[in-house]
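Hi V.,

You were right to ask for the full record rather than a summary. Here it is.
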Amino acid sequence: MWLFAECSKAELTQIGRVADEVTVPPASILCEEGKPGFEFFFILDGRAAVRRRGRKVATLSAGQYFGELSLLDRRPRSATVVSETTMVLLVLGQREFNSVMADMPKLAHKLLIAMAGRLRAADAKLYN
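Predicted structure:
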């Protein structure tokens, strides 16, 4: 996953320690377009629909994630995500993320590197 791509195994372990594993039933609204976001979700099991302006634009399943940008900028969600099946998720909240960042200052630099890579890739898609 791009956000944590530059992290060491020890850093990923530390992040994993502060994340919560939760199970949600089908039809649960996990995040809502236009509303503030304060957590990141990693899908361990199950499937979810991603909707923008009421239209389904994607399906997410095990190994995929969403909500990562809210950890960084605290801006409103760009889509609504609703569970289609029972799901098992790892949830990393803003407070826990900030705690890890404070305990591991080198992590911030790694996240900036990962973000720069993502921006470069998006830029390349626009101009190629």
